[in-house]
């Protein structure tokens, strides 16, 4: 079959994707250290090492980069002309026939359904779940942040975050929810990479290339 090149993902989409990828990677490593210290500083009698504070600084910087990337991606989803196909995916996600056909495709029982949007229903549902979890991990992260930095941005956000802290049952619960959200994101990342490879190999349409070059190569109909 002849294939055609379709420009599917804008440079803004691809940039936000890879920024989130590296931010999540750094957040996982630094978050694991903050939760379960796995590195000890060189022994010294001078109180100038501050290793935990350095890891926390890295975690906070990566967290705010993640927040910025998600806000930017949300803007693209709703307002970027090149991202209209993502909005169209909502219609595909509400179509039961496409759901059934997509599940058959993953079970090697049928062909990939023809869709108008960028994402199939399972992809759209998983991405929606990711952003819901991302909202909670950002919210809990900001609550933890304002309890360490009491001036500047921390002081500005404190009265906003405090009611949410109370709703979650206190700071200890906030920390637990933060960790659970990170566990869900780790599972999502593993599943996301697996499904991306699966679709790229089975579909042979450059599915993984698109997040780098922006182009997919579907069959010409």
From TrEMBL:
Entry keyword Signal: no
Predominant place of localization: membrane
Superkingdom, natural source: Bacteria
Gene Ontology process terms (BP): respiratory electron transport chain
Membrane-topology annotation of the record: Multi-pass membrane protein
GO molecular function: electron transfer activity; heme binding; iron ion binding
Subcellular location: Cell membrane
Gene Ontology CC terms: plasma membrane
TM segment ranges: 21-38, 58-79, 124-148, 176-198
Pfam families xrefs: Ni_hydr_CYTB
Domain Cytochrome b561 bacterial/Ni-hydrogenase: residue ranges: 9-214
InterPro entries from the UniProt entry: Cyt_b561_bac/Ni-Hgenase (IPR011577), Di-haem_cyt_TM (IPR016174), Hydrogenase_cytochrome (IPR051542), Ni-dep_Hydgase_cyt-B (IPR000516)
Keywords attached to this entry: Cell membrane, Electron transport, Heme, Iron, Membrane, Metal-binding, Transmembrane, Transmembrane helix, Transport
NCBIfam families assigned: CytB-hydogenase
Family: Belongs to the HupC/HyaC/HydC family.
Protein name: Ni/Fe-hydrogenase, b-type cytochrome subunit
């Amino acid at each position: 079959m002849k294939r055609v090149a379709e420009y599917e993902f804008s440079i803004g989409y691809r940039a936000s994707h890879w920024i989130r990828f590296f931010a999540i990677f750094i957040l996982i490593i630094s978050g694991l250290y903050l939760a379960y210290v796995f590195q000890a500083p060189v022994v010294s009698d001078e109180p100038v090492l501050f290793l935990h504070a350095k890891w926390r600084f890295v975690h906070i910087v990566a967290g705010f980069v993640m927040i910025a990337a998600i806000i930017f991606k949300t803007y693209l989803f709703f307002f970027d002309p090149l991202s209209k196909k993502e909005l169209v995916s909502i219609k595909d996600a509400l179509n039961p026939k496409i759901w059934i056909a997509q599940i058959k495709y993953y079970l090697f029982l049928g062909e990939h359904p023809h869709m108008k949007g960028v994402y199939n229903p399972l992809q759209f549902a998983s991405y929606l779940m990711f952003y819901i979890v991302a909202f909670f991990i950002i919210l809990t992260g900001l609550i933890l942040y304002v309890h360490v930095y009491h001036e500047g941005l921390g002081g500005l956000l404190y009265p906003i975050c405090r009611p949410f802290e109370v709703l979650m049952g206190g700071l200890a619960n906030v920390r637990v929810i933060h960790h659970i959200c990170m566990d869900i994101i780790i599972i999502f990342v593993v599943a996301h990479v697996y499904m991306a490879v699966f679709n790229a190999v089975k579909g042979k349409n450059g599915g993984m290339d698109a997040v780098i070059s922006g182009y997919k190569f579907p069959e010409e109909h």
